[in-house]
Design a protein that fits this description.
- By secondary structure, this protein is of the alpha+beta class.
- It has one domain (about 1-65).
- About 20% of the residues lie in helices and about 50% in strands.
- It has one helix at about 40-50; strands spanning about 1-15, 20-25, 30-35, 55, 60-65.
- A five-stranded antiparallel beta sheet has the order 3-2-1-4-5.
- Strand 4 and strand 5 (about 60-65) form a beta hairpin.
- The longest helix has 13 residues, at about 40-50.
């Protein structure tokens, strides 16, 4: 099920070369994207900063601007 992202937090470990993004949704729930590469972090952060609204689906692990109706 898609949920609309209201804000996010980003964490990057230079030591481990791994990152995570914590997504907060309008319904006050959260999802954690862990073990991200630098390429994934760049893409995800660019989408989160530039695109509004943005949705995330836990089952498909899909981040999208398209809202399922």
């Amino acid at each position: 099920m898609q949920r609309r992202i209201s804000y996010f937090d980003v964490d990057w470990s230079r030591k481990d070369s791994s990152g995570s993004v914590r997504l907060a949704f309008d319904d006050r729930t959260f999802a954690e994207l862990r073990g991200l590469s630098i390429e994934e972090m760049g893409l995800i952060c660019n989408m989160l900063r530039a695109e509004k609204p943005l949705y995330y689906d836990d089952e498909s692990e899909r981040l999208t601007t398209l809202h399922d109706e």
